[in-house]
Amino acid sequence: MAVEKMLMMNVIGRIEDVDSVLADIILSEKVELVSAQSQIEANNFVFKLKDENIDKAIDLNYITEFEKDNIYENELKRASELKEMLDIKSDYLKGLSKKKFNQINDNDRFNKIYDKVKNCYDKLNKNKLKLEEIDNIYKSFCKISNIDIDMEDLGNLNYFDFKFGILSKEDRIKLKKNYENILAVIFHTGTSDEGEVYLVLYPCNIEEEMGRILRSLNFKELMVPDEYTNTPKSVEDTLAETKINLEKDIVILEKDLQKHKETYSEDIGFIYNNLKIKERIEELKIYMSKSNKYFYLSGWIGIKDKDYIVDMLSQYKDLLIIFETEGGTTPPTRLKNLKIFKPFEMLVKMYGTPSYDELDPTPFLSLSYMFLFGAMFGDLGQGLVLILGGIFLARKNKMFGGLLSRLGFSSMIFGGLYGAVFGFEDIIPALLIRPFENINTVLAAAVFIGIILILISYIYGLINSAKRKDMEDGLFGKEGVAGLLFYITLLLLIGGKLINKTILSMWIGILIIIICIVAMVFKMPLTHLIKGKRPLHCEDISGYYIESVFSIIETLLSMLSGTVSFIRVGAFALTHVGLFIAFETIGEMIGTTSGNIIVLIIGNIIIIGLEGLIVFIQGLRLQYYELFSRYYKGEGREFKSVKINGGEII
Length: 650
Fold this sequence. Notes:
Helix content: 55-70%
Family: Belongs to the V-ATPase 116 kDa subunit family.
Distance between the termini: 33 Å
Keywords: Ion transport, Membrane, Transmembrane, Transmembrane helix, Transport
Number of domains: 3
Shape: flat
Organism: Tissierella creatinophila DSM 6911
Membrane topology: Multi-pass membrane protein
Strand content: 5-15%
Number of strands: 12
GO molecular function: ATPase binding; proton-transporting ATPase activity, rotational mechanism
Radius of gyration: 39 Å
């Protein structure tokens, strides 16, 4: 439940092993590469000089960058085509590539597979297009099959041209009204599902004008190609036979393609995987350097992965691995949390990734957020709905589905404490309290819970300051020791007044507050004084103190407003009950049992959807503004291991 410790790994190996080493690193998904050139220039490629390492040290003087090689692009494109042509899904194990990567690709075999599949696929598509074209022509001739005219005779007319087409009922009426104005002979030749079929004969020299007239009548021209010369009925029979033959050919080609898929799927999967890895290798070489004999690689790994990486790379002869805890740059952040807390990492990263020298806030956020959500949205039945919704959503978004399920579980726990089931409070007894019957207690408890959470956030802040070795903010900052004492003293003084009892003497309290204010105002010079640094101020003195005074006012206001802000937890617990009472009242006013049930169902849907979303946002607001602002910066960089682009591998 922390930020995982990282190691900088520097690797020197033989140039001929570079592709295999990178392939292993990619498939392990445990290394984040950084620029080896930067590491070398920063003198971080330090290793013990032994006889076997002399060449490696000498070659460091002749390093250059790798040039990207695009030789695999065409092959990868062809492999992708094969995947698409055979409809091969990404369902092969990565182990296929791990096992076979170092084997030599049989390019002749790949070319033969490609040619076979491509030839079959192209024939199939050509036949499908031909069938579609023939089918359209066939449908046209079916509509005019009762005409006993040879199509060749129509096509041989010297001074006339013709068109077959369909008119709707409305357009037929329009044609009849204007028939005497149209310089053409129009024959009704039949009826179809789309309308009435006509043959239009017109002089060749009015082709353009006739086209405009027919378009104005919404004349739907039938496709009747010139190459068909017999009677429409004869052409229809010929086309029907052609269709049957094409359909038979398509079935045979589809079977051949399926046979190719069964025969070559594994080979294509292997080839595609290897090419994807090789493409990724070429992309990642930009991070590496090389000399005449050796390659130089640098990257971050988790400290727990060290043995795995060493064992993985031990197969390579004359390979040198150097591990460092620092590496000259700030390590990336990889979170390590229990499964129950894992979905809440999403909320942490929305605010920012923890710095490497910062506590991971995920466990604290997880527990406190579940507590706050459950307190505001406590209901056994509605919580169960959230759990079921989370299980369903987890199929598409595992993190959000898991988050929703955990919030639903918290809602069910508080539902049992409140005695609420789908809004009803008379079904089961309350194990702790009924919010609507104890309003003052609920609101006071909410503020008390807020105080506890704020105090915990101060402790987190102190630990983070210690990890960063930040004395200025850790001792004298508004979120440091001075700020914590200031807050506790205020709580004791105000709390004593509220209960009419002296918890802390007023004079002692005022003295502590004054000391804390002085410490916060003079935090920079005090820190420099303790450390022996000079000058005591690093900026304009007057500007520094003006800013410090206003910062004290802002701190006081934020402490008070932040504490009172948690009263919304109790307010939403009451609103949750009140909203259901409103729907219950509306249901009773309808006067029928069925109407009442429908209103209550709709009410629960609205409460789960709308109020659930509002409570989710309010809980997040309390985390981000009232807690995170006191201890969490989130200025880190997330660890991103190298892998196949998009994780795509079949």
